[in-house]
Amino acid sequence: MGADPVSRTALFGGSFNPVHWGHIRPVAAARRRFRLDRVVYLPAARPPHKTGRRFEDPFHRFACLARCLAPHPGLVLSPYELHRPGTATVETLAHFRSILEGELYLILGSDSLLQFHTWREPERILDLARLIVLARPGAEAHREALPPFLAREWGRRVLPFVHPRVGTSSTLLREALAAGRIPRGWMPAAAVQYIRIHQLYREV
Question: Of 73, 154, 175, 192, which has the fewest Cβ atoms less than 10 A away?
């Protein structure tokens, strides 16, 4: 009999304030590309590096994200960081490393990768998990801007995944929603419905 296949889990954190297609389509594509069994979404109670910004109630962000992920196999949701405000990424990874077998990955955007060396214990993070970087075309330019400990792991522990740009952001969405507009095609229909029912993002 052959060896059992290795389980592959990726973590994907963020505020999802609000969720949009840029949080779902590239991640679903990365799941297929790297043959991940699951991607665990981890909405944060309040990201410590995003100061001075208004966040909708964590319950609403969690519930809205749950509705948007439901149609996507392998994209699952965890409240782990909601119950632990201020939890560092390295702490979250250590927790999931302790309860999961197989390979562990962390999905992040290319902009976050450029700030990665400022995170708590970045080299330990790289020991705990491989990084899948959602990169736009021209990803090699990001490699040149990285500190040496990251640049030398490019293609090994740091895995770029180039995807077409999704033309939206949570910031632009919050501005539009505050003005009473919901741009077509920026969000899953489930998010639009949830935001309308609960009258969210009326102010920024």
Answer: 73
- Could you tell me how far CA 70 lies from the centroid of its own chain? 16
Q: Residue 155, class by beta-carbon neighbours within 10 Å (0-12 exposed, 13-18 middle, 19+ buried)? A: exposed
pTM of the model: 0.91
The whole-number pLDDT of residue 52 equals: 52
Residue 134: give the domain boundaries: 8-198
Comparing C-alpha atoms, which of 170, 166, 179, 175 is closest to residue 64?
170
Residues in Cβ contact with 59 at an 8 Å cutoff, skipping those fewer than 6 apart: none
Helices 189-198 & 58-69, crossing angle to 10 degrees?
Answer: 150
Instruction: Give me the CATH number covering residue 92.
Output: 3.40.50.620
pLDDT higher at 135 or 141:
135
67-81, 108-122, 151-165, 179-193, range with greatest mean pLDDT: 67-81
